[in-house]
Amino acid sequence: MTKSNKRKGSMEPKTTNNSKTAATSSVPTSSSLSSSRTNLNNFFSKLNGPQKILLLVAVVFSGLLLAMAIYEAAHDEEAKKPTAAVAIPTANVTINEKGFSPATLTVKAGTQVTWTNSGKKPHQVAADPHPLNNSIEGFDSNTTLLPMDSESFVFEDKGTYTLHDHLNPLNKSYQMKVVVE
Q: Could you confirm whether domain 90-180 is CATH 3.40.50.720?
C-alpha cells in the first residue's frame, strides 16, 4: 500500500484534460467563489483569539498605509502645480570711502535691504549702539564686507533703525538710518 502526501482539503490545483475547463479556469464561477469563501471561513475558524486580533491589526494597519500612500500621491500632484512667486521688495545701500549712500533710507515693512561695499577698503555694517551692536534683533553685525561684497537683511517690523560702520564708528559719514513704515 502506498501512502499519499495529499491531505484532505488540500489547496493543490486540480488538473483535468477537459479543454473547455482549461479555457475558462481564469473566470471565477459561483461555485469557485463559494469554495473560496468556505476555505477562508475554515482558515478563520482555526485561529485563536490573539491570532484573530493580530490579523485584524495587520489588516487595519495595511489599510492605513494604503490611505497614507493615496493621500501623499494626491498632495504630490498639488506640490507640482506652479505657484506664483511672491516678490520681496528690495532696497540698496552702498558703502565706500565716502560713507553710506543713501544716509537715510525709508522702506516698507518686509523690505530686504542690501548693503554693498563699492569701495576699496573693508567695511562692517553694524547696528547701533557701538560697540554692543545689538539694537536690531537678528542682524549680523559681525560680517566684514570686502570690496564688492554684499550683506542683506529683511526689516519686518516698523520703526527707525540706526546703523554704523563698525570699522569707522565715530565718523558721521559712516552712520545711517533705516526708517521702516
A: no
